[in-house]
Amino acid sequence: MLMSEQTAIDGFEFARMGKSLHGKMEVSRFERLADLLYSNSGQVDYAISGEMDEEGGHLLHIAIAGTLHLRCQRCLGDIEYALDLNASLMLFKDESDLVSIEEEDPDVDGIVVKDKLEILSMIEDEILLDLPFSPRHEACEGKVERESPFSVLKGRI
Ligand SMILES: [Zn+2]
After folding, report:
1. Which of 46, 119, 140, 155 could in theory staple to 136 by disulfide, Cβ–Cβ 3.0 to 4.6 A?
2. What 3-state DSSP class applies to 17?
3. SS3 of 145, please?
4. C-alpha 128 – ligand 1 centre gap (Å)
């Protein structure tokens, strides 16, 4: 018999019932992440918990931790990136309610949920939001400055 794995949740019910779940996910399953990675080995741990806030809003708290191997944008080498993120999402049925919450509380992201939430893509979204825009080794970052005197010199010749 196959072990059943929960792949999607009803976000509103999840929040209303104060449910929680946690598990591990193979990094290789994140397809949208693939281009940014040096290697897709390893796993991330995740935990999702639901909650109602005082005003009756539906909240999901997401925690993700693990190590990713990002590709350095300069030398294309391996950067070990320690992922350790916490995010809160407020669920809405309507686009029109979305705008107000993001103005009120910058720590909470509003999302419109029409259907069940795929756990995989929800976690991948949060990881993508957390990653540096253009990851580089610290040493590779430094190279830019060290090159500048050279280019000044070059300009004189
Ligand atoms: Zn590098």
Report:
1. 140
2. coil
3. helix
4. 20
Neighbours of ion ligand 1 (CB under 5 A): 72, 74-75, 77, 137, 140
Whole-prediction pTM: 0.82
Vertex 130 angle, CA 36 and 31, to 5°: 40
Q: Which pLDDT score, from 0 to 100, does residue 3 have?
A: 47
Residue ranges of the chain with pLDDT lower than 70?
1-5, 99-102, 143-157
Q: What is the pLDDT of residue 143?
A: 62
> Distance from the CA of 138 to the center of ligand 1, in angstroms?
7
CA distance 153 to 34: 40
The helix/strand/coil state of 42 is coil
Residue type, 50: G
Note whether 101 and 107 are within 8 A (CB). Answer: no
